[in-house]
Amino acid sequence: EADIYQTPRYLVIGTGKKITLECSQTMGHDKMYWYQQDPGMELHLIHYSYGVNSTEKGDLSSESTVSRIRTEHFPLTLESARPSHTSQYLCASSQGAGTGELFFGEGSRLTVL
Amino acid sequence: AQSVTQLGSHVSVSEGALVLLRCNYSSSVPPYLFWYVQYPNQGLQLLLKYTTGATLVKGINGFEAEFKKSETSFHLTKPSAHMSDAAEYFCAVSLNTGFQKLVFGTGTRLLVSP
Fold first, then answer.
1. For residues B28 and B2, is the Cβ–Cβ distance under 8 A?
2. Facing residue for B102 by CB, picked from A97, A102, A107
3. Over 70: is that where the pLDDT of A43 sits?
């Protein structure tokens, strides 16, 4: 049973607001990821982390930022939300180098008005 | 660069019918291949994966997929669809390296009618 949690599940906010999407995992995984998912489109990797104090940008350019101060926590922040940021954001984690299996949270659906 | 193509954004079957969801990949080196399923308002869950060894891979819920290198394909099948199989299915590929940087396809929505 995967134990990775995202909050909030749904968020509707106005343009210009600062938001943080939380992601926590209790599996002790060293690698964590943020994907952006739009309807009918593939999931795009926007951030990933090898471990504490490690963050990298993914394949899709994003105005969001991430931090990894603790192994279990990988929050994503938007300093000033815009309607173009409206999307679903999925957090995932994985362990080790072999299996390639990612464990996903249930997602945070963000709507910016 | 690696990529994944899923043919058909929607596939409709009747309950009890064969399910076939198509996935083709492009990769310059032998890849790892995955199928994930996403139920409404949930995250993605791993169905099955191919890394090395046997090319016919069995997963959860009666699904299986066959890695065909000559066709660069990894199609997902299930002999008999169930209503509970209705979901979005994503094929994904990663290189055989230590970091699971998956590249996903656009997904196929499976619709199952009674």
1. yes
2. A102
3. yes
